[in-house]
Amino acid sequence: MKWFVKYLLIASLALLISPAGAKQLKAQEYGPRSFSTTNKWTAIVAAFEPEIKAINTEIDNLDYAKITDTKVFRGVKYQIGEYKGEPIVVFTTGISVPNAAMTMQMALDYFPIDRVVMMGIAGAIDESFRPGDIAVPERWYFHDESVYANPISAKENTYNLPVYYEMALASYKKRELTDEHAPTYQNFGFIHPEEMSVIKQGWDSPRQMPYFTATSDLIQLTRKAVESIQTITMPSGKPIQIKIGGNGVTGSVFLDNAKYRDWLRTVYKAQVTEMESAAVGQVCFINEVDWVVIRSISDLAGGQAGKNHESVFDGIASGTATKLMLGVLDQIVLTQAKQ
Questions:
Q1: Any residues with CB less than 8 A from the CB of 219 and at least 6 apart, and which?
Q2: What Rg do the C-alpha atoms of the chain give, in angstroms?
Q3: Global pTM exceeds 0.85
Q4: Around 108, how many Cα atoms within 13 Å sit in the side-chain half-sphere?
Q5: Given 128, 226, 285, 301, which is the most exposed site by the fewest CB atoms within 10 A?
Q6: Cα–Cα distance, 260 to 257 (Å, whole number)
Q7: Where are the domains of the chain?
Q8: Largest Cα span, the chain
Q9: Which fold has domain 41-145+195-338?
Q10: Are 66 and 44 in contact (CB under 8 A)?
Q11: What is the pLDDT of residue 50?
């Protein structure tokens, strides 16, 4: 009898691990959740602690805003709440491109998000900017997607470039003739810039993207917000400057080099540089979610004389950006009420 029981046990295990058994255990559906809710959420996004602290402080002090629940996925905290009756989710992306892409895609998979308003700090490329000033670029570029090439010893400032990059560079030059926002590519020493290759639903193959464009409706709401809110000032009382439009650049680099800063201005016509926004823009573009990014100046990205004291202005810059962000949320609420 013992041998019969043993046989049944072995047979049962074999069934479980056999193809037939595997079919019984296979999930019926794959992919992220789909949401049927009609009133989709606004994601309020920042990259790191001083920025999210400024957001939470404002929410805590407002009668018409509150956090009602918190969810943690893969260690990332998502705060769920309301702003003037509209659903929101507030979270920190983490610093730099991989973290921003990961947490943003997770949020879109787990919550019914329809639009993203990101705020935070940045380094100034625009010479007119000072700490506390705000930029809201229309386009975001990856500046450090690149080829590091060996020099040709016999010729100054010439490099042994891979064949694929020479072909790509030729296509970039052609694009400059038809796209006024195309970068005017040139190398920075051995560093030769190239573009992110992106795939999207409905495309047969990846395409190279020179930049990602913020949603025009949210850019316009930001303009309305600037007109409707009280003047934003520094702690000294000095009014800040706000520029809407133009270009921002993103890379996995804390930039503190004057020559590279000049190069970014030449190639990308950049106003600000930071480490997350283009990644958030790419994820939103692929998922067809509206987005805009508000960046307040914390430092001059290497344009200063001497040591970079970015940490001195982190909190102040986060505060000025949050004030404009709340103005944008007000405009979103008004727009939703009209629909």
A1: 136, 138, 244, 245, 292
A2: 24
A3: yes
A4: 21
A5: 128
A6: 6
A7: 41-145+195-338
A8: 91
A9: Rossmann fold (3.40.50)
A10: no
A11: 86
